Amino acid sequence: MITSFFKKNTLFAAALLFFVALNADHKKTNKIQVLIDPSANSFFFNGFNGTSIYNNVFGPRVAGGYYYLNGMIYPEGTIDHNSTCFSTSKPSLGQFICVANLIANLSFDQNFPVETYVEDVRWNFYFDKDCDNEANNIIAFGKVFSGNFTPNAIGFHGAGMPVIGSKCNKELNSIKLANAYFNNFISCSSGPQILIEIEFEDKIEYKK
User: Where are the domains of the chain?
Assistant: First the structure.
């Protein structure tokens, strides 16, 4: 009886350790960051201004046009939005792709529109690592408003964006708040960058 008791408990402990090890690399969080860096080798941007295609991410945007761009996903707190340049040596969690339809004219200069509904967006989050052997993706939809075109201020923001996902993130969710910050264009040698800090209503899951 004693031997049987120890065998059962040993098997239970082994199963428990296996379960813990299996889930040790799973991370649940409400917050992530996205870095949009035109100087990165993996970066792409394609826009349509109503008459022609353009590839300058900070070129004038025309109502009725659209664009595609990408960025890299990082854990919360990886990059300080108060920094002159937004940079990190840490590996990304995956790729972010934005598809935006332009609602208002927008230029990155003294005429930058303040607190204006400027874009209707679809944000795709493609995490590099699968979740339970299936692709781990998240898609969000919503409105984006312009803010202030100054370094380290909130340049764009959105809230209440519905979210759908696959596998580990299949439960209905939403982006509670998303703030996009500009770096210091003039002082940063890598040029213009945007850092988006995203907070979800409920926790999302990914593998580290």
Answer: 28-207
